[in-house]
Amino acid sequence: MAKTAQPEARMSPKTHAETRFEGGVKLFQHLKIFSGNSNRPLAEDICRYMGTTLGAATVGRFADGEINVQIDENVRGCDCYVVQPTCRPVNENLIELLIMIDALRRASAGRITAVVPYFGYARADRKTAPRVPISSKLVANLITTAGANRVITMDLHAAQIQGFFDIPVDHLYAAPIVLDYFRKKNLKNLAVVSPDVGGTERARAFAKRMNAQLVIIDKRRPRPNEASVYNIIGDVAGKTCIILDDMVDTGGTLVKVAAKIRENGATKVYAACVHGVLSGAATDLVEKSSLEEMVLTDSIPVRHLEGGKIKVLSIAPLMGEAIARNHQGKSISALFV
Questions:
Q1: Among residues 66, 84, 136, 256, which is most buried (max CB within 10 A)?
Q2: Residue 197 — φ and ψ, nearest 5°?
Q3: pTM of the prediction?
Q4: Which candidate, 2, 9, 3, 4, places its Cα nearest to that of 323?
Q5: What is the pLDDT of residues 73-90, one digit of tens each?
Q6: Could you give the residue ranges of the DSSP H alpha helices within the chain?
């Protein structure tokens, strides 16, 4: 059962300003941040960055497993944010998010923003076969119906998922954080690898900023969580390669791509994935692979060995800045110029 202390916001003079319009943008009263149980450390880090504390809320369970939520402070007219990635256990965390949003709505919150660093069910974004659901659209509908007025998310599996929502969506990117990390490594003779054709746009933008070559992997996926590498489009011989993807689940595809690249003459292979789902034995698979290092963010809690191949970067400053700008009616896209 999660319970947090009374917040004392210190972000800016506007944090406690009266509700008013400024530049055509409605500014709300107190900014309050709440968290479910899916990634409480991230929510706490966001609050530390913003100079505030988590809002007081109880998120527990009844004896039969039903989720029990109570907001333990006044939120009437406030600008409220619920930090809750829908990671494993996906359904539990999703329902926690929905019920917290409903509780805030019924408590007369001025505005409710769902902060979902990792958006679950994003892989089911279209009909790939007859009689299959578009689950990401269903989840978008649920979040909207629960009472969210806005969504802040990061590196969606497919950017068009933004259009599944009938409310505004701020789509953030972890690229600046990852770019800064690899630039400090000062890697030479660099190539950025997209592990599939669908990730080409993301890899191309990253390669341009790193002044690196672009390589694309042609692969086939006969069934979910299983892939076969067929061809490497581009030259990796004698290069240091960074495999760039939005998420890593079982790790099987990533390890196969890394091995294939090494077979074709790459000197070193790194991986950078925003969301570390890491199902099953994925962590062990990565540790035993030919990767030098795999960089993830803390959008999802990551269990990893100290001193191992997995490095976790914090997105708290980026998420905190996005929340602050949203609260103050400032541009969020300016963060990625």
A1: 84
A2: -65, -35
A3: 0.88
A4: 9
A5: 999 999 999 999 999 999
A6: 40-50, 90-106, 135-146, 175-185, 200-210, 252-263, 282-287, 316-328
